Amino acid sequence: MPRSATSTTHAILLSLAAAFAPLAQAQTQAAAGAVRSEKLSPIDQQFLQDAGQAGATELTASKLALTHASDRQVREFAQRMIVDHTKLARNLDVIAKRHGITAPPAADTAVIGSLQNLQGAEFDKAYIEKVAVDGHQKAVELFRKESEAGNDTALKTAATKALPIIRHHYEMAQQLAKKAAS
């Protein structure tokens, strides 16, 4: 390529780079600003962490119940928990990802560990107590608190919509516990 053509090409490339530099800088600043402006408050971060762990524990324990439980009603309850908590987890995951939180929550290993080696009636009793009743009692309080005091509108709305379902789960768990005690 002749020297003048090379100089012309360089000049065009430099002009294009100069023309697009403000656009690229504005996009970078907007993206950085969006991440900063969407940072969750400590209350909302804690809610996402606690709700995620509670949901993961519920799902893992309920899947165990499908094969370890002897009582048909316990297995039916577990199946319902898998369906409902999977939907809830998806909703919370979408909100978490909007805020840059991509790590999936881990189940409570103490609860899952205490259930893994149990079978039949022994499993039923432990699952009803630790997951169905205690887990939902804690979840009701967690979601109530977020629905009242959360700062992120999407999380607050999700918690408010989920609360009646979780309260219903807690009532179902209490009925299951009464039946098992009789």
From TrEMBL:
Pfam families: DUF4142. Keywords: Signal. This is Membrane protein. Residues 1-26 form the signal peptide. The lineage of its organism: Bacteria, Pseudomonadati, Pseudomonadota, Betaproteobacteria, Burkholderiales. Residues 44-176 form the DUF4142 domain. The keyword DNA-binding does not apply. The keyword Nuclease does not apply. It comes from Caballeronia glebae.
